[in-house]
């Protein structure tokens, strides 16, 4: 995680002021750092009514830029996104409450783009998916808990072309082809 903090430094401190918005009970709802033009600049933090941190985003002159982190209600880190010019761009990582990686993927211009890997709680791979500009594209696989392939899917621009279903013993159980609309 150190690379994320180094790659996305905070804007200069001298330019910021902090604005606090509260819940009716007086607890802090938002802490928003702003610049001299009153644009969000620096960290924006959102808290739950119980005072626990829900999320925090980095802004530069009103635009999301750099890190965004989301937290479980029990305080553990849930998800990290990176923003570039107001859009998710770069690696995204989701976590189980125990800190193990739950999912890992990449965004480009706010759309999933490239490989996405989902994990079982024990760290073994649950699924490997491919995306192109937010659409399923290429080969994706899901796995049984023991690592054996369960399904293989092939997509082209979000349209499923074929699927294969495998048993726990690795034997092909079923293969299906999906004709394109209009029979082409």
Automatic annotation (TrEMBL):
Pfam family, one: MORN_2
Domain of life the protein comes from: Bacteria
InterPro entries: MORN_2
Protein name (database record): Toxin-antitoxin system YwqK family antitoxin
Organism annotation: Nitrospina gracilis (strain 3/211)
Taxonomic lineage of the native organism: Bacteria, Pseudomonadati, Nitrospinota/Tectimicrobiota group, Nitrospinota, Nitrospinia
């Amino acid at each position: 995680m150190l690379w994320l903090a180094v790659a996305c430094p905070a804007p200069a401190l001298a330019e910021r002021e902090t604005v606090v918005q509260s819940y009716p009970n007086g607890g802090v709802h938002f802490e928003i750092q702003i610049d001299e033009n009153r644009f969000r600049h620096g960290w924006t933090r959102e808290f739950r009514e119980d005072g626990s941190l829900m999320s925090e985003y980095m802004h530069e002159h009103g635009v999301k830029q750099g890190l965004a982190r989301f937290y479980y209600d029990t305080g553990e880190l849930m998800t990290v996104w990176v923003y570039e010019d107001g859009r998710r761009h770069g690696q995204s990582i989701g976590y189980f409450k125990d800190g193990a990686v739950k999912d890992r993927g990449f965004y480009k211009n706010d759309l999933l783009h490239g490989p996405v890997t989902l994990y079982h709680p024990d760290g073994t791979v649950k699924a490997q998916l491919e995306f192109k500009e937010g659409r399923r594209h290429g080969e994706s696989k899901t796995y049984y808990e023991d690592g054996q392939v369960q399904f293989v899917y092939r997509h082209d621009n979000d349209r499923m072309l074929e699927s294969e279903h495998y048993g726990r013993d690795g034997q092909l159980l079923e293969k299906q082809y999906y004709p394109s609309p209009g029979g082409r």
